[in-house]
Amino acid sequence: MDADRQARIDALAAAVLKPAQPTPYTFKITVVNSALVNAVAAPGGAIVVFRGLLDRTDSAEELAGVLAHEFQHVLHRHATRAIFQHASAGILMAAVIGDVSAVVAFGLEGARMLGDLSMSRQAEAEADGDGMRMLQAAGIDGAGMVTFFEKLAALHGDPGRGKYLMSHPAPQERLASMRALSAQGRRPAARLMADYDWSDIKTMCGSETPPQSPPR
């Protein structure tokens, strides 16, 4: 367990969730060591982020945008409806009680099954809009959400790399809506985690070589 980097992700999640408090959910973020470009929400507040998605974030604001989107799926109970429609019994029980450790215990295949759950267009639009508003209420620059979803749109058509886009379709009209909402918000004076080299977060699964100390 990479406690230091997990603590940074937990702090980021807490900052995003601040405008929604109190909530009936206890949110928990788990990073799964898989190259899939995906993130999924389970009922109860369990959020699984795949390493492939984390690797493609270039700032805390971009990951904050993904988390805000997934938090909204939980808050709107989109994940609950999708789980009951599609999931197998074992994954269903683990997800319903919000036990992400139990979900991951089913192996990567279980996490992938959650990732394969499809949300409706309406559910995605709600997660987009309310996720952006959550970021703005938290004083987080919503442009990070826009830039990251633009990256996902660029990955479309590659079955290995475009997983998140496949399960979270992002047509141009959705991107246009995100851009419009982002433009309505005030830009924060400071970046999130401005004193932290964001590339370091990607080493929590050993996916990148840790930054070297400068020569003395």
Q: How is this structure best described in words?
A:
This protein has helices at residues 3-17, 51-55, 60-75, 78-86, 89-96, 100-105, 108-115, 121-137, 143-155, 163-167, 172-184; strands at residues 28-32, 39-41, 46-50. By secondary structure, it is mostly helical. The chain has one domain. A 3-stranded mixed beta sheet has the order 1-3-2, with helices on both faces.
Quick summary:
The chain has 216 residues and is mainly alpha-helical. Helix content is 53%, strand content 6%.
How would the blueprint of this fold be written?
Elements lengths: L2 H15 L10 E5 L6 E3 L4 E5 H5 L4 H16 L2 H9 L2 H8 L3 H6 L2 H8 L5 H17 L5 H13 L7 H5 L4 H13 L32
Parallel strand pairs: 1-3
Antiparallel strand pairs: 2-3
Helix pairs in contact: 1-3, 3-8, 3-9, 8-11, 9-11
Q: Sheet bearing the most strands, described?
A: 3 strands, mixed
Q: Percentage of helical residues?
A: 40-55%
Number of domains: 1
Question: Number of DSSP helices?
Answer: 11
Structural class: mainly alpha
Beta content: 5-15%
Strand order of the largest sheet: 1-3-2
- In sequence order, what are the helices and strands, one letter per element? HEEEHHHHHHHHHH
> Could you tell me the radius of gyration in angstroms?
16 Å
The span between the termini is: 31 Å
Shape: globular
- The count of strands amounts to 3
Low-confidence stretches: 105-110, 208-216
Mean pLDDT: 77
List keywords for this structure.
216 residues, mainly alpha, three-stranded mixed sheet
